[in-house]
Design goal:
- The complex is a heterodimer.
- In chain A, about 60% of the residues lie in helices and about 10% in strands.
- Chain A is of the alpha/beta class.
- A 5-stranded parallel β-sheet of chain A has the order 2-1-3-4-5, with helices on both faces.
- In chain A, helix 8 links the parallel strand 4 and strand 5.
- The mean pLDDT of chain A is about 90.
- In chain B, the strands form 6 sheets. Chain B has a 5-stranded parallel β-sheet.
- The radius of gyration of chain B is 23 Å and the shape is globular.
- The mean pLDDT of chain B is about 95.
- Classes of the chains: A alpha/beta, B alpha/beta.
- Chains A and B meet through helix 5 of A and loops of B.
């Protein structure tokens, strides 16, 4: 019974059917399905399937994004039930704070990374775009993430990443977090240059990097 | 030039007159009902005073149709671009074509190793000197973002290098608000003063809104400043279809046109009569690789289509064509660039930026510049068309040579061969097979590399007059002093 609902959740996400995903999430609540299982084995599994297909060029990025939306909207229905659940807590792999740096309004890549990190089991706080250095600092203090992710798509704005790292350093937060960077003009070399802990060239690498960074943490 | 007329019709048309009008009306509706966001309070206030419906806290500007119409009639139909020595002046109007290298590449394909690397100042010097010698690439661009200077002045530095190494006009842009002011000073020094530069512009500045429907503070300020200074601005919307614009071509044309018109209004309100060029770099967005496909056929179709709309408005046009998504100079780079260069000419696009460029819009190659130059030559020959008159039909000659004769030793042949045939350089191989083998069985890239080396050895661009050169050096040194930079490549101490 439960297996059936979990499969239906997975399929709704893979089919990019937001309506179906939310409807089945309601069904899951009615049927007393463990909400953590519904998210991890149902929804997130669906996003991972689409993510893998995207990595091999079989799926389009629009499919990945809509699948991600289906997961998020269904999660919104299931999450309130988690605290009431007697079966288990959702153990996040870790916390990731992510944003596109100040002066830069590109967000497609970053949003895909957020989706894939969520699907992989991270708790993601997405600050959006054009995020000032100060906001990265404030939110790092507030949220205490394991990984701080910075994105930029322009050579002019990627310089801000160095500013953020310096500011974290000044506030003695640098040693408390791992820093990952991404976006077309960035590179592993750039990450080294500015003292970041790593760079992801695409969403798949970003997830692997995040997992690697929290293991070492 | 009659506005909204059919007199500026290019040879190749994808859109009918009705379709152009539908897109025009649809984009005016978008501007009026959806609006654009402009992250520049001064620009918003300026527009508000001109009758635009502005919501300051949302940065939103809804532009009424009557204002768009009023502004459209103020824009000049011709932009004249001047070279430093008056020898390669370009007139941007009608269906006349000017090619220039794609600008702003972060990388260069190394001529010797074939690897993609960050360029140095000397690479830009080589590129500019090569382009100076390439007959069919008639304008320069600030083609490379060089890596051996501080990145906060790299925009000005690029222009400094181009101005010193070629008299051809320049297509450029800036990465900072005050970058424009420094670059204007450089241009004034070369032109002979502020008034001279305004009368005879030597450079066009590219300004790109952020699709969909957004203007950053930097770009909106650049556009307004260009308008005030009389510097021709190329407005370059660049929706990526399915990502930052509708996936349907018509949808992105509507958005592209709306963004362009919003820029036109901003420029005309800032200074009526400001010279503008209807430009762009819209692309297919490849959903499998999340890359902008400059070599996609739809990308080229978009350029040709919005150029028709630009001509409908009676404006000079521009597009990024002649580039390739390939990472090496190969068959893909050949046909993607070839198609673009030819289609652009057929579509009568006045400024075509792209030759030399690979890796989407991010890598220049000297060898590819040589190859693309030949394609540009072919395109220009194509647009000269077929000359049909008594001399060319040559009835008397045909009668004289008669059945079974031949034309090789005829004076007519000698007289007309250079006018009728595009004579490519040795880049193009037309040898007999055995001759090609004896010459080393070389492919086009090897031949292009030889031409690059030979050209750089032989060709000396006309240098700046020594007083202008000193003044330009002084402008650069002043920039360095203000920013506490002690030394820069190529700047005399």
């Amino acid at each position: 019974m439960e297996g059936g609902i979990l499969n239906k959740l997975t399929n709704a996400v893979v089919d990019c059917d937001i309506e179906a995903a939310t409807k089945i999430a309601e069904e899951a609540l009615q049927a007393d399905v463990d909400p953590v299982l519904a998210i991890e084995e149902g929804l997130a599994r669906g996003v991972k399937i689409v993510g893998d297909k995207f990595a091999t060029g079989e799926a389009f990025v629009s499919e990945l994004m809509i699948a991600g939306q289906a997961m998020r909207q269904a999660m919104a229905i299931l999450e309130p039930a988690i605290s009431k659940s007697k079966i288990g807590r959702r153990q996040a792999l870790g916390k990731v704070l992510i944003g596109t740096v100040e002066g830069d309004i590109h967000d497609i890549g970053k949003s895909i990374v957020s989706t894939m990190l969520s699907a992989a089991g991270f708790q993601v706080m997405d600050l959006g775009v054009d995020v000032p250095v100060q906001k990265f600092i404030e939110k790092t203090k507030e949220v205490k993430p394991d990984v701080v992710g910075m994105s930029s798509l322009m050579t002019t704005t990627m310089l801000k990443m160095a500013d953020i790292i310096k500011a974290l350093d000044d506030e003695r937060l640098r040693e408390k977090v791992k820093i990952a960077v991404g976006g077309a003009p960035t590179s592993k070399q750039w990450a080294d240059e500015i003292g970041a802990d790593g760079q992801g060239a695409d969403a798949m690498e970003a997830v692997q990097l995040a997992k690697r960074l929290i293991d070492v943490h | 030039m009659v506005r909204f007329s059919s007199s500026n019709i290019p040879a190749f048309q994808l859109l009918s007159r009705d379709e152009i009008e539908s897109i025009h009306l649809a984009s005016m509706k978008i501007l009026e009902e959806v609006g654009v966001k402009i992250y520049n309070d001064n620009a918003l206030k300026m527009l508000g005073n001109a009758g635009v419906e502005v919501e300051l806290d949302n940065r939103l500007a809804r532009i009424p149709q009557h204002l768009v119409k009023e502004c459209l009639v103020k824009v000049p139909s011709t932009v004249k671009l001047y070279s430093r020595n008056g020898k390669d002046n370009r007139v941007l109007e009608g269906n006349k074509v000017t090619y220039n290298p794609g600008s702003g590449a972060l990388y260069i394909l190394d001529s010797n190793t074939g690897e993609r690397r960050r360029p140095l100042a000397k690479d830009l010097v080589d590129l500019v000197r090569l382009v100076d010698a390439l007959e069919f690439i008639q304008a320069q661009s600030t083609a490379l973002v060089v890596s051996d200077v501080p990145q906060d002045i790299v925009d000005r530095y690029r222009l400094y290098v181009v101005l010193k190494n070629s008299p051809k006009a320049v297509i450029t842009g800036t990465f900072s608000i005050d970058g424009l002011y420094d670059m204007k000073r450089m241009l004034e020094v070369v032109a002979g003063g502020e008034k001279e530069l305004a009368r005879k512009p030597m450079a066009i500045f590219d300004t790109c809104p952020s699709a969909p429907l957004k203007w950053s503070e930097l770009i909106s300020q650049n556009l307004i400043d260009c308008a005030k200074f009389g510097i021709p601005a190329e407005i370059l919307p660049m929706p990526q279809l399915g990502a930052t614009g509708p996936v349907t071509l018509a949808g992105s044309l509507v958005q592209h046109n709306a963004e362009f018109l919003s820029g036109l209004v901003m420029a005309q309100v800032a200074k009526p009569g400001a010279p503008l060029i209807y430009g762009g770099s819209p692309t297919t967005f490849d959903q499998k690789h999340c890359t902008a496909a400059l070599g996609a056929i739809e990308t080229m179709m978009l350029g040709c289509s919005y150029a028709q709309i630009g001509k409908y408005y009676g404006l000079p046009t521009h597009m990024y064509l002649g580039l390739s998504d390939a990472k090496t100079v190969d068959a893909q780079s050949g046909f993607e660039s070839g198609l673009g260069i030819i289609l652009g000419a057929l579509a009568g696009i006045n400024v075509i930026s792209g030759p030399g460029m690979l890796n989407f819009e991010n890598c220049q190659s000297l060898e590819k510049l040589v190859i693309d130059n030949t394609i540009c030559g072919m395109a220009l020959r194509l647009m000269e068309g077929v000359r049909v008159d008594n001399e060319t039909m040559a009835l008397d000659l045909i009668a004289k040579v008669g059945p079974g004769g031949n034309y090789l030793a005829e004076k007519h042949t000698l007289e007309w061969i250079r006018k009728e045939q595009f004579l490519p350089s040795n880049l193009i191989d037309r040898q007999e097979f055995e001759a090609w083998q004896r010459a080393g069985s070389r492919d086009i890239v090897k031949r292009a590399r030889e031409i690059v080396q030979e050209t750089l050895k032989r060709h000396q661009p006309e240098p700046l007059p020594s007083d202008a050169e000193k003044e330009l050096d002084d402008v650069m040194k002043d920039i360095m002093k203000r920013r506490k930079i002690s030394a820069l490549p190529l700047v005399p101490t």
